[in-house]
Amino acid sequence: MSESDVPNHASQASVPSHAPEAGVSEAPIVAGTSSVQSVQPPSFTGLRTDIPRWQSVCAALFCLAICLFTWWLVTRGEHEERILGYSQLPSPKEALEYFPNLWDSHAPQSHLLNNTFKSLTRVAIGFSLALLVGVPLGVAAGCFSLVRAFLSPLILFGRNIPVAALTALVFALFKSGETEKVMFIFIACVAFIVSDATDAIRDVAQRYVETALTLGASRLQIILKVLVPLALPTIFNSARVLFGLAFGYIMLVEVVNDSAGAGGLGNLLNVGRKRGITEVMAIIILTIPLVAWLIDQCLSLLQCLIFRWKYGRDAERNALWQLIQGTMRLFWR
Q1: What CA dihedral angle connects 241, 247, 248 and 249, to 10 degrees?
Q2: Handedness of CA 143, 144, 145, 151 (dihedral sign)
Q3: Which of 1, 10, 196, 247 is 20 to 30 A away from residue 232, measured at CA?
Q4: What are 62-95's pLDDT values in tens digits?
């Protein structure tokens, strides 16, 4: 048998061809990517995906429209036809018509703006005292485990005591007046500030401390020039959130202690409740979150400006900053 009679099995074996068939174009495959492109879901239904600014604004406005419509629905018609009577909740029209009486009131104790500033002043003083005491203690507790163990019972007590029970303690310790309101904010906030400052210091990566030690830095230099600067943005962010809660806390102590001439939004709310003027209660309830939102936006913008190295890009998403830019474009084009 000659070699020509032996079948060439190697030539008959089916070898897959990598060349593309005629008329079929093959997309190039980029290194590190899959040849099968995944279809991304729409942005408004994507899981943990950002949505455009206009969608966010429209969603928020739609939520407000639903709340306003519900308010109008339960208070529409005559007093006898309402789902909720006037003594329970005024209609949006009634609250809007009564608003000039609070804004243009000649009596200081009934003026909405004066009482708002009085409440904010109390919160600012008490919260500033809490920062002056809480931040240094938190830094010390975050740097030294012995200090953290020493302060842990006080932090546990301060973070878990009910705010309503705290009012009775403050009334027993301090005389009625501005002192008790300021100290109420101080006692209610200082434990949270100490705890948040401690966590912020401890969350700083250890590699920064080791690098400073390698460069010959002392313990005090590491605390003041490494740990505190790196933890300060987190401390400021926690304080910003806590300030909004403190603004709600002051309402409680002002409502409970409604002595004559005390002033404040809580006192004004209590006066409206006692006189049966439900428009006052509705206006103040709407004023509180609006003022809290404005304060939060101002502090958020300040945070972006102070800590530009960390939050600089977030300033572009700040609602107040966008409002300022939009207003400036109306006058300076």
Answers
A1: 100
A2: negative
A3: 247
A4: 999 999 999 889 888 787 778 888 778 888 888 8
pTM over 0.85: no
318 vs 293: CA distance, rounded Å: 12
CATH number assigned to the domain covering 110-276:
1.10.3720.10
- Residues, the chain: 333
Distance of CA 28 to CAs 18, 34, 40, Å? 13, 11, 20
* Both tokens assigned to 287: 């004023």
Structure tokens at 126: 């008490």
The count of other CB atoms within 10 Å of the CB of residue 184 is 29
Render 207-229 in DSSP notation, one character per residue. Answer: HHHHHHHHTT--HHHHIIIIIHH
The C-alpha torsion from 289 through 115 and 284 to 240, rounded to 10°, is 10
Of residues 207, 253, 249, 250, the one with CA closest to residue 226: 207
Identify the CA nearest to 115 among candidates 216, 286, 251: 251
In the chain, domain spans: 110-276
